[in-house]
Amino acid sequence: MNSRKLDPGELPRGERRGRRERHLLALTGGGYRGLFSAEILAAAEAEGGVPLGKRFDMIAGTSVGGILAIGLASGVLARDLVAFMREHGPAIFQPRPLSFAGFSKSRYGNGGLQRAIEAVLGKPRAQRAFADIPVPLVVSAVQEGTGTPYLFRSSAAATGKGDEVSTLDVALATSAAPTYFPPHRIGDRVYVDGGLVANAPDLVVLTEAARQFGCRIEECHLLSIGTAGAPRAGAVDGAPGKIGWLARHAIIDLIMTAQEALAIDQVRCLHPGTFLRIDAKPAQRIELDDTSTVATKTIIELAQKAIENTRQTQAAEWRRFLAYLA
Q: Residue 12: inside a domain, yes or no?
């Protein structure tokens, strides 16, 4: 299926400038720690002086990073994404009542998450087809049962038509972390969190940009934002019984952390034109469902320190992205 010819004003910024260089954004998964990512985005938006949503040639996100990516691509300001995380975090991670049967279920329902997404996007944008988002956007998920990775694409990121499913459905699918949230059904398929295969979607956005735009790795300039995660200390006790849910919960965290570390290392080895990774490692691990006042304060402080560190140690890369976004 051939894509229609775009008007010059619709072309990606790199193409409008007569070159194939592409500026890409990758947003990592990490539950409530996505507040860290939102704070970084808000700082970049404030310093650049323009909304970020339409300033990148392609955006990719996973789990909470997918939700933030959807927000940006839908025209939500980064500072409003910060407010979204802070205001709705406790309701999103509201535990279900425990029961003996509950150890085989997800800890949280997705009702609070659905209401939060509708609140930040507005119901019309939450219900519109993902294909119709006017920004090249890729969000990862995994098909339950087959374990097949699936990339939801807006039409602007697809060679033909994008995914004709609701934006809300995509947000719930990418964030359906096993043991935390229930799998999400869309039609005859059931999806779980994309963090199982692409918690850091950096390789995803690089390969998708190469496919869509025909650019080489050295023509790609990637801004990658983490969620202040850190490896869990100690071994996981996988014994069944009273800690069965906790053991499964820790294994899922380990899978996502390991995938993220591998993806970031592989991207560094590929030597893209620019690779700016902004992340932090807290002194003590912040669980992805910890919405406490202490966790919130720590995440915000980590983001502020990460921005300051980036300005000091990676000033050229930071200025490059700010100049492009202006």
A: no
